[in-house]
Design goal:
213 residues; mainly beta; Glucose Oxidase, domain 1; 7-stranded mixed barrel; two-stranded antiparallel ribbon; globular
Length: 213
């Protein structure tokens, strides 16, 4: 049986990368360096838990919400669908209706953001999921939503609201995906966040491969 090639859709974490305003900047330092006489290489990492490609848990906005280390693996391993959004402002419910989203789907939204996802500067005018679209996704009982920007909600509008609608319904969120090399269609998805105790979010590695589901 021939398997298609896995495509890495996660953003590489590095010094100087874009981060949400007010979050901790990424700082990767060499604690030990073979070229300087050390017996091995060892790095130190300082970054926020919502840096680069990462996941949000309900605990991110709800004090009694489930933490990321309690996430069911079924939320991030299995069939997924990449949906390309043409609107350059936000994901709208009226556009989603034509895709006939089904119960327990894992949906990844590819937007204009994918052209900028590797930029070192933060763009406040990214394409986000509107609160109306978030409610539509909840009514259709999706289990996972992924976006190609640092937040499912907008910087100026629906930032908190969209998060709360999705997370309250138990939808697991993947943010800052790099879908620039991925076409609309059906895929196998694996996205594994760091398993940090009682975490509201954590960096993740995400990959997809095309399938015929």
């Amino acid at each position: 049986m021939k398997h298609n090639k896995w495509i890495d859709i996660s953003v590489t974490i590095k010094n100087g990368m874009a981060h949400w305003p007010g979050d901790r900047k990424v700082k990767i330092t060499k604690l030990k360096d073979i070229t300087k006489g050390s017996k091995n290489n060892l790095s130190g990492l300082s970054l926020g838990s919502h840096t680069g490609t990462h996941m949000d848990a309900p605990l991110h906005f709800f004090k009694r919400g489930k933490s990321l280390d309690r996430m069911p693996l079924s939320a991030v391993i299995g069939p997924a669908r990449v949906i390309e959004i043409k609107d350059k402002e936000c994901v709208r419910a009226c556009e989603l209706k034509k895709f006939k989203i089904k119960k327990e789907e894992r949906i990844l939204f590819k937007t204009w953001n994918s052209r900028k996802v590797k930029s070192s500067s933060f763009n406040k005018n990214f394409v986000y999921i509107s609160s109306e679209a978030a409610n539509y996704l909840v009514r259709n009982n999706v289990q996972t939503v992924g976006v190609d920007c640092l937040s499912v909600g907008g910087f100026y509008k629906d930032g908190v609201t969209t998060h709360k609608i999705l997370l309250k319904a138990g939808v697991w969120l993947i943010e800052s995906l790099d879908l620039s090399q991925v076409k609309e269609g059906r895929y196998d998805l694996i996205c594994l966040p760091l398993k940090i105790f009682n975490s509201e979010g954590a960096p993740a590695r995400a990959v997809v491969r095309s399938c015929n589901y």
